[in-house]
Amino acid sequence: MEFTIRDAEASDASAIHDIYGYYVDNTFITFTEVNPPVSEYEQSIVNTKLRYPYIVLCDETGVVIGMAYAGQIRHHDAYRFSVESTIYLSPDAPKKQGLGRMLYSELENRLSAMGYKFMYGVLTDDNYASIGLHESMGFEKVGHFTDIGYKFKTLKGIVWYRKQIGDLNDMTLHI
């Protein structure tokens, strides 16, 4: 099976809505409790792409089976060289094929080319698959907040992972 990665378009919003919705409704992987409407995803894709990559992974038939994007980590200007990264694969995506690594690597490459210096991943502290992906890709654990999110009548913690993706001697963004 062949897979392709391309820039997300507003027309991908329905597929992204459905992928993310699975995690909203069934897991602690996101602390979002209500999946936003497709129109919010359309706007998010457009707005995100003004400053950051927003990409999708498609199967050989062109069906979107994953997405990854980056965004502002905090609203203060001094954080401009750091991003929070997000990745989700469809629950129906083939397993153990390196699809998450492929998609996340492409996001990293695009962010680095744009001049960003650090990627941060914020993960539920018992999301071992995502923790494993981040660690295998060279991210280091830099923080742990226990019992910070409450979903499905359960308290969960988060861990922060960070990876340097750019030269700190060149503090120039190319966006």
From TrEMBL:
Keywords: Acyltransferase, Transferase. Residues 3-156 form the N-acetyltransferase domain. Pfam families: Acetyltransf_4 (PF13420). SUPFAM superfamilies: Acyl-CoA N-acyltransferases (Nat). The keyword Transferase applies. GO terms for molecular function: acyltransferase activity, transferring groups other than amino-acyl groups. This is N-acetyltransferase. It comes from Pseudobutyrivibrio xylanivorans.
